[in-house]
Design a protein that fits this description.
Blueprint lengths: L7 H13 L2 E2 H8 L3 H13 L3 E7 L7 E6 L5 E7 L3 E7 L5 E8 L6 H14 L4 E8 L2 E3 L4 E4 L11 H9 L3 E5 H12 L8 E6 L3 E7 L2 E2 L30 H5 L1 H13 L13 H9 L3 H25 L3 E5 L7 H14 L2 H4 L3 E4 L6 H15 L1
Parallel strand pairs: 4-7, 7-10, 11-14, 14-15
Antiparallel strand pairs: 1-3, 2-3, 4-5, 5-6, 8-9, 11-12, 12-13
Helix pairs in contact: 1-3, 2-3, 6-13, 8-10, 9-10, 10-11
């Protein structure tokens, strides 16, 4: 049988099966505009390669039931990794998001990330069979098209690090690199509150701040795989320095790192707070803000106002008034959402702000690694 794996038509058919499946060959023909014989040819090739399977019957045709086609969950497994400043989170999953194993590894600042990453991947691969690909979700700025970590405000050894090249040479497996903001948005799109949404903005609020733009059902990455870096919108060119090399970026004012850093500074300077005698982390800051601690409440409110100022401009630029908030800062919920909403209503175009809708992500802490795993399989399946 002739091979069609690299055909754009095969990619289109696969994506439609993934998005709308189980789906019949007739419905694939109607959706794509391709003839039924062409659809049958490409679907047969996908079945032969183990990428899709026949999975039941469509009994709503009014005539002879048609066979339904869906993604083959047993095509294989991938290793997905979320690479943070002080941790490596990993999962083993299939392409439909089933997690089989997971774990977290702490990484010290003085440990070379390349050596640590390679040793941990080797350990995981040695314990698992049928791993077809590796997906990496990075918290820094990445160039997806080359698989390079360009910079990370959290770790200098992630600057200009060709992750894809290094890991593919080491493990002889295809490697996919993306921004954690986009891998989380992908899982949200498939399993979270964004299911069935075609256009939305995903704000990832954590130690870094990023944006995923989903346009007509697809995550926008830009021609080089660099996009959505709202954490590096400059709010004050005379502000604090940022790990990206500029000053006064949104991240240095509104990220989890900024909130924790500012909390420590205020307490060291004698500001009264119930955070005294506690570990100063974002979880405790959120908890104390809910209890009425003025410092904690102020820090989260000011973060929300800064994020809202940028969000208003993003809404004006994209024309998309639907925002989903993810990352650990989402746990502040209304403490964060209210100041964001207030600033958006004040600064965004009224025609858009009147349609404003904001949602909190429903995902857990494994979604960054899971999205990387799923996307890496998608790259080799299509």
């Amino acid at each position: 049988m002739e091979k069609y794996e690299n055909s754009p038509k095969v990619e289109l058919i696969y994506r439609i099966i993934k998005e709308y499946g189980p789906i019949s060959r007739n419905d694939l023909s109607k959706t794509t505009g391709m003839g039924i014989l062409t659809i049958a040819k490409y679907v047969d090739q996908l079945i032969l390669n183990g990428k899709v399977v026949e999975s039941g019957w469509d009994d709503k045709t009014g005539g002879r039931p048609a066979r339904l086609i869906s993604i083959n969950p047993n095509f294989g497994k991938a290793l997905g990794i979320e690479l943070g400043g002080s941790y490596i989170k990993w999962v083993i999953s299939n392409c439909v998001g089933d997690i089989f194993q997971s774990g977290t590894i702490n990484v010290q600042k003085n440990e070379p990330i390349k050596n640590n990453l390679e040793s941990q991947i080797k350990r995981i691969l040695d314990d698992n069979e049928n791993i077809k690909s590796i997906g990496i979700a990075s918290t820094g700025i990445v160039e997806t098209i080359t698989g390079t970590s360009l910079c990370s405000p959290q770790r200098e050894d992630l600057n200009d690090f060709p992750i894809k090249k290094c890991l593919e040479e080491k493990f002889s497996l295809p490697v996919y690199l993306d921004d954690v903001c986009r891998t989380v948005a992908y899982v949200e799109q498939n399993h979270g509150v964004a299911r069935n949404l075609k256009n939305f903005l995903y704000f990832y609020l954590d130690v870094g701040i990023g944006l995923s733009m989903v346009l007509d059902g697809k995550i926008y990455r830009g021609p080089f795989g660099i996009s959505g870096e709202i954490g590096h919108f400059i709010l004050d060119e005379n502000g604090p320095s940022c790990g990206c090399g500029n000053r006064g970026c949104l991240e240095v004012f509104a990220s989890i790192s900024a909130i924790v850093r500012n909390a420590k500074k205020f307490i060291e300077n004698g500001v009264q707070s119930s955070l005294h005698n506690q570990e100063i982390n974002i979880e405790n800051i959120i908890n104390e803000a809910r209890k009425g601690d003025k410092l904690s409440y102020r820090l989260i409110t000011e973060s929300g106002e800064r994020i809202g100022a940028v969000a208003a401009q993003v809404i004006n630029f994209t024309g998309i008034p639907l925002i989903i908030f993810g990352g650990r800062l989402k746990h502040a919920n209304q403490l964060l959402i209210e100041p964001i909403q207030h600033i958006i209503k004040k600064n965004a175009l009224s025609a858009l702000s009147q349609k404003l809708e904001m949602k909190i992500s429903s995902l857990d802490d494994w979604s960054g690694a899971l999205g990387a795993s799923m996307l890496s399989l998608l790259e080799i399946i299509q």
